[in-house]
Amino acid sequence: MKFFLLPTAICAFSTLVLAQSPQRHFKPEDVLSEKNLSDPRVSPDDKWVAYVLSEVDTAKDKSVSHLWMQSLTNGESIELTHGSDDATAPRWSPDGKYLSFLSPRDSKNGSQIWVMDRRGGEAKKLTDIKGDINGYEWSPDASKLVLLIQDPENNGKEEPKTPLPIRIDSYHFKQDIDGYLHHLHTHLYLFDFASQKVDTLTKGNTDEQAPQWSPDGKLIAFNSNHTVDPEKNDNNDIFTIEAKPNGQLHQLTTWKGHDINPKWSPDGKYIAYLRSTSDVDYIMYEQDVLCIMDADGNKNKAITLQMDRPVATQEWSKDSKSIAFTVTDDRRNYLAQYTLATKKVSTVNSGDYGIASVVSFMASSWIVELSTPYLPVELFAVENGKLHQLTHHQAWLKDVKLAHVEGFNSVSKDGTHVSGLLYTPDSITTKKLPFILYIHGGPVGQDDYTFDDIRQTLALEGYAVAAVNYRGSNGRGLDYCKAIFADWGNKEVTDLLGAVDELVKRGVADPDHLGIGGWSYGSILTDYTIATDTRFKAAIAGAGSALQTSMYGIDEYVLQYDNELGPPWKSQEKWINLSYPFFHADRIKTPVMFMSGLKDFNVPTAGSEQMYMAVKGQGLQTELILYPNQYHEFTVPSYQVDRLKRYLAWYNKFLK
To answer: Do the Cβ atoms of 503 and 523 come closer than 8 Å?
Structure first.
């Protein structure tokens, strides 16, 4: 099969080249033009890839997802669904007759499965099941589907006019977006395509995830936590169940950490899956390892343990000879593969960009999501290690000037080597610039060579902007990530300040005009840093906290707290030490703007309110901006724009 596409180098970085002679700078409103591509799925004949494209409907002030289909032979691109209702989770039937998807259209019971006949005609609703369908997969013979269905609220009955009291008796009882949890579980069901009959496969007080059919259609593999008290650990294991009512259940793994995301080899001999590095109930600073085992659970082998890097999204080649996966490694996310014959891991494609969501097509080629510092996500094919761009939804950037992005390294005062990214308005900087240290959240995560609209916006306003992978970030090994265990705001601040010192030394950052900010753990580190160092002239702390004892029981991290810190009544001194920005608010001299979404259960608004009052009490200039009906991550596009505009106004006020 040949691609009718542009040459690799031009395709992969066309937006970068086009952006060299732009008409205008990237601005806050441009986030409304960004397209989000996800969940690519290749057709059985290897001629098409279906995927989800999410874009902003400015009139309705919301994002809407629709299905698109991209030809792998002639470059043709087709939008498959339309209207105001989302369409997600595209799946090809193995016989190639249907393309199915999830949508809430014409349904009172949440998202249902719809099918489009590839021979023509409108999409038809296939299911009408009480309870939200969270996922599904076709059986190999296309006669059945395995469904992931969450228990319906109110047992499927209409909600009463006066809501009933919420009864809570669980350890983990609240979650961002979901709100207070109602003892609802997600189970596996079997749907017969011809008769439309639904049979129960699993039930009880467990949750099942990631179902995958065996190639012969007899078994379904999935992961679930079947421990005595699953709320108090992360011990998911891999199971198989016979694909029939009252089918036999068999547990394949027994690792005390988690085993997740099982994938059968096309020949049915093996299951590849991801396993946590540590054999413990729970640890925040964890990274996944690629593993393989025989289909019956024997001969488990950890393949990537010695790499000491987190891996994800493993996918078998269609000939069962290799497994592709992504690796997070020092500002990059690259594509690697394990070859069964040689038992070796090799790099397939790597560069100053990020690769995700690997899907197999043809014998040993791949479709991936790829983003660069100058290009939001597009779909690319990887053939013989080379990239071919498939989609071109981000063409709106061709007339937009973007900031220059380059990597830099610094050394902290304790000798730790730290990596980061520097955003500047132009590639050549001849004078000191007002500077903003914008800190990533997590803390387990990393700033990488992918598109970042927040830092682009700040840099195009005339700032030098730094992204720093402080200790606690991933991509540098497990020890680097675990270095902050029960010691927050110490080594991270040392690394952040070391990076600032390095950029001041280079003559990039103006030492008299330094700003700082971040969201989530980036906000928490902002509080830690300005309570440690007074040289910052402006700060923005979004969705953060500083009086950590007050978070116990009101956010969703009790499992981490109990395992990492211990309950506050057993380790009071530790909790107080970790709350030093609040208890030493009198040391803060920086004007701070605090922000929060009022429905945030991840880091609740109380954390921002407490620090706002602590800073306000010191007589400093401060503001508290609260966004109605928003969670930890904002979903309303106009609020996303508003937040960026407030960033610029606050920094411009104090740094320019």
So the answer is: no
